[in-house]
Amino acid sequence: MSMWSARSRRRVVTFVVGFLVLLVIVGQRVRSVVHRTRDVPLSPLVARTRVGSDYLQRHAVTTGVNLSGEMDDMGEFARPDFDPDDVHPEVRRFYERTADYDIAYRVRWHRGFRGGAALAARLTSRIEQLNLPGPWQSSSETLTSELVAIDPDDDPRDGARAWIRTDETGTAVFVAIYASHVRDEIRYVNIAVPLPWSNLSTVLHVRTLDASDGNERGNGDAIENGNAGIELTTETETGDEGLYLRMPFGAVSLPMDQRFRVVPDGDGIHAEHEMWVFGRQFLTIEYDADR
Question: What are 167-176's pLDDT values in tens digits?
């Protein structure tokens, strides 16, 4: 007499077939994501273990030339639906003369993510990267900025430069490699955050904001010349925008989004940086930068 009844055999066959179908679906999804990310020009720069404020020197990727801004000229991002001349002079100046500003920031971890953030803070403080205070630590800090050119042989993206932000003790908070690239006549902001043996890359679409209320208005007559803020976001579908994890075997697209909104504030700017995972907001960082 068989140890397996006909019903048991059917259940096993159904399970195996269902599992194989799931593998095929997941495999197709992974291939689709990998195929897409292969086409996005991401930074090759990674860290070995610790990142830290001396990352450039330890990895020998800098030309040693100090730069003024996160970008050289916002005019390079001009397109029919984005006119850099609509952007408020103080906001544009911040992007082009970033090193002239003192920056203070405040961190808010959203409910449901605070426990994980507290654990992550222990790791990020050790590697000195994405080194944000945990939810029960002081959330107000002051940053010092340094911007340095990256050797094109080490990172071929357009205008690659490191923006190193350190706290009052000289400990690195953010070490990010800023650059840009063009796809279908759209220039994107392209940022890489080196991590141990990998990097977290973000590709952002640039558009204008009404400086008075922070609502995007696109371009055109709705915004008075020189009175707009700016938004950099992954929440559009024009092509390459998104967050990617680059690893030794390739890059994958992450189920995350982020948005920066920057408006003028006296002789400086106010910015909000928001992040989501699987559609849930988990982090908000506010920045105030003064000359």
Answer: 989 999 999 9
